[in-house]
Amino acid sequence: MDMLIDKALKEKLEVLQPQLIQGIQELIRIPSVIAEPSEQYPFGEAIDRVLRKTLEICEGLGFRTYYDPEGYYGYAEIGQGKELVGVLGHLDVVPAGSLDDWENNPFEPVIKDGKLYGRGTQDDKGPTLAAVYAAKALMDLEVPFHKRLRFIFGTDEESLWRDMKKYMEKEEKPSMGFTPDSTFPLIYAEKGLLQLLLESKNETDLVLEGGNSFNAVPDNIVYTGEKQEALKDKLLELGYEFEETVSGVKVLGKSMHAQAAEKGVNAINRLAIALKEIGITSKTIEFIANEIKEDPFATRIFGSCEDEDSGKLKFNVGKINLGEKETLSIDIRIPVTVTKEEIVSKLSAVAGKYGLAYKEYDWLKPIYIPKNHFLIQTLMEVYQEVTRDTLSQPISSGGATYARAIDNCVAFGAILPGREKTEHQPNEYIVLEDLYIALEVYAKAIYRLTR
Predict the structure, then answer these.
(1) In the prediction, which pLDDT does 1 show?
(2) pLDDT-wise least confident of 34-38, 97-101, 266-270, 437-441
(3) What is the distance between the alpha carbons of residues 73 and 47, in angstroms, rounded to a whole number?
(4) Whether pLDDT at 53 is above 70
(5) Cβ(426)–Cβ(122) under 8 Å?
(6) Could you tell me which CATH number the domain at 3-190+367-449 has?
(7) Are 445 and 9 in contact (CB under 8 A)?
(8) DSSP string across 332-393
C-alpha cells in the first residue's frame, strides 16, 4: 500500500468511526440469543432480526447482499474476480446470565470511560462490523478489489454451527480468509472442541437446574432442597461464596469462557462438592465431587493432557439438570495432537462407574496452520505494520471460531494483546481505541488479501 493510499485510508477510517459505533449499537440492542426454532426462524426471531439488520447496514454501505431463504446465514460481497476471500463473523450471542451482575442493561449499549459495553461488543458483533467498515473505507477510496470479498454472517456459532453447515452445503467456499473473533496477533492453532452430555435416570428426589451454556463457566446456581442450613455451614467451612435468596441458597462463582475455565469459578462444581459433604448426593453430584472437584483440567480422569502447540486440556461443567433424568452438559477443549477417541474412552470409562452414559452433542475438529503459511505471514505483517508490535507471536487457542469452517482461515483479532477478554461475561465491553486500531488492521489485511 503506497503512502498516499495509506494516508487517505487513515483519514477515511476516522470519518467512518461514528457510523461504525452507531451500527454496533443497533446490533447490540437486538438480544440475539438462540431461542426455540419455528418454521420461519431456525434460531428464533431475534437472531433473524439481527441478521436482517446487518444485511440492511451492508446494503446501505454499497455491498451486494444475500439472505438465506431458510434463515441460517447471510452474506455481503464486493469486488470482482474468480477467487473468493472470506471474512466470517457471527451475530448470535450467549445469554446475559444474571442481570444483577451487569452495571447496565446488556442489550442497551453504553459508552463509558472509552469503552463500549453490551453483550456482543467483543463477541462478535463489534469486531465483525469493524471488518465491514474497514472494507467500506477501501470502497470509498475506490480501491479496486481484484478478488471477491465476502462477509459471511453466521447465526449459530454459540451453539451447534448449523448455520455454517448449511452455508457449506449451499454456497461457494472462500479460498482463504479470517474471522475477527479472537485476539491479535492471530491464532494459528485451535484445540478440538467436544461438547457432550452425561446422562442417567434420576433415582433420587433431588431437583436441580443451573448453568446457561456448555461453553460458559456457570457463575451461580440456586439450591432449593432440604438441609439448606447445613449447606450454608458447609459452604462457609469450604470458603465458597453464597447468598441467601427467597427461593434458596445461591452458590456463587465467576463466569468465564470455557476455553479459559481455569480463570473462572464453577458454581455447579462447588455446589456438588458441598452437597456431597452434607450427605445429599446423586450420580452426577458424585461424579463431580469425586472426579472433577474444582480442577478445570480434569486431571484425575485424563492425567496431564497437554501439548507444546496448544497447551492443556480444559474441562467445563456448563450445565446441570436433575429432573426425571440427570444430565451434565460438558465442554472439553482438546489439545491439537490428542485424539477425540482417546478422550471419549477415558471419560466414558470413569462416567460409567457412576451409571452415567456418554452422549456426543457436538464436535469441532482442531485446526493447525504452520507459521510459515502465506496467510499467517501476510496477516502478521499487517498487524505489525499498524501496531508496531513485533514482540507478540502467533498463538494457539482453546477457542472455537469459524476459522474451522473453511480451509486456509485463521482467527484474527480484534482484542489486542494484554487486554481483558470479557466475552461470555457480565459487563462485556470493547475498548474503543482498540476497536479503531483493529479497523485499520482489517482494512490493510483486506487490501493485501484481495490483491
Answers:
(1) 67
(2) 97-101
(3) 10
(4) yes
(5) no
(6) 3.40.630.10
(7) no
(8) EEE-TTS-HHHHHHHHHHHHHTTTPEEEEEEEE--EE--TTSHHHHHHHHHHHHHH---S--
pLDDT at 113: 97
- Determine the residue type at 396: S
C-beta separation of 409 from 177 below 8 A = yes
Among 92, 124, 163, 181, the one annotated catalytic: 92
> In this structure, what C-alpha cell is assigned to residue 373?
503459511
* pLDDT above 90 for 86: yes
pTM: 0.79
Residue ranges with strand state E in 202-241 = 208-210, 220-223
Percent of the chain with pLDDT over 90: 93
3-state secondary structure 311-344: EECEEEEEEEEECCEEEEEEEEEECCCCCHHHHH
Of the ranges 96-100, 273-277, 416-420, 439-443, which one carries the lowest mean pLDDT score?
96-100
| Chain Cα centroid distance, residue 231 | 34
CB 366 within 8 A of CB 377: no
Selecting among 48, 68, 124, 157, the annotated active-site residue is 157
Residue 217's pLDDT is 96
pLDDT at 5 over 80: no
Length of the chain measured in residues: 451
- Cis peptide, bond prior to residue 106, ω within 30 of zero: no
**DSSP H helical ranges for 123-201:** 125-140, 162-170
The CATH number of domain 192-364, selected from 3.40.220.10, 3.30.70.360, 2.60.120.10, 3.30.450.20: 3.30.70.360
Of the candidates 254, 183, 213, which has an alpha carbon nearest to the alpha carbon of residue 397? Answer: 183
pLDDT given at position 4: 64
Residue 92: active-site member: yes
175 secondary structure, DSSP code: S
Contact predicate 398/314, CB 8 Å: yes
Residue 2 has pLDDT above 90, yes or no: no
Burial code (b: 16+ CB inside 10 Å, e: under 16) for 75-96 equals bbbbbeeeebbbbbbbbbbbeb
Name the residue ranges covered by the structural domains of the chain.
3-190+367-449, 192-364
User: Strand 249-252 to strand 64-67: parallel, antiparallel, or no bridges (unpaired)?
Assistant: unpaired
Chain segment 290-322, per-residue pLDDT in tens: 999 999 999 999 999 999 889 999 999 999 999
